[in-house]
Fold this protein.
Amino acid sequence: MSRVSQAEAWRRVRSVLEMSDLVLEVIDSRDPVETRNKRVEELLNKLGKPLIIVINKADLVPIEVLKEWKEYLGREHPTVFISAKNRLGTRKLIVSIKQHAPRLPVRVSVVGYPNVGKSTIINYLKGRHVAETSPVPGWTIGEQVVRAKQWLIVIDTPGVIPPEEVRDEALLIIKGAIDPTKLEDPVLPAVKLIMRIKSFNPKAFMDRYGIDAEDPMELLELVGRKRGLLLKGGKVNIREAAIAVIRDWILGKLTYYYRPGVIGNA
Ligand SMILES: Nc1nc2c(ncn2[C@@H]2O[C@H](COP(=O)(O)OP(=O)(O)OP(=O)(O)O)[C@@H](O)[C@H]2O)c(=O)[nH]1
Ligand SMILES: [Mg+2]
């Protein structure tokens, strides 16, 4: 991902925000801090545009924790949690859009990191499949304007990643920003991801694979063996094992959560 293309992507985001009356910022309930995009929020603030934070993939996190995040993030911006995939809480989203719309019909853009579920939300709002969705991060390429309802125009956008964060591949995976098969070396980011998952959910690997190990490299070995990801001669293909773990995170098959106040500035 080149810096130039990111700069271009940001220019496009800005122009979409400028033509919106209201913005939905979609974040992943598993990691609200890392999937919240401060740069988008600052820009919106400058432009004076109202924002609703949509905590998506709520099916992956216990409801008490989601309520804590809603309360916490709600101090700054109206916040709803939903599972776009399972269509839970989506009525509340519609009510919230109506409530915060400065005018009707309203133009609402949907922004956030790749893979957080922006296109899935648009399909829900429309009531049928109009925006392509995929577990491959970076799926939506151009903006797409959809007349979802008589009073609601929604704009799907490609996921954005601040250029200054392009270096830490493990964080980019958590932000859903990387297709692991495109990584030159997926092992190091997978190791970092494993450490993060374990720190918040010690049972994650036992729950998913029925195996565990203290050491992330050893864990990758075990996962590779269990999945039959072997090289000629019977050694484990660590690269493929790393990709499998990253993919399971992207698919929500490996998961964790934490409460507000636990890390950083959350
Ligand atoms: N578990 C779970 N998965 C979801 C939910 N919403 C979307 N997904 C899945 O997340 C993946 C990404 O969804 P998209 O709607 O394509 O995400 P996007 O934000 O448009 O992604 P880009 O276009 O790559 O920026 C897909 O595999 C969806 O099925 C949800 O509420 N829960
Ligand atoms: Mg999309």
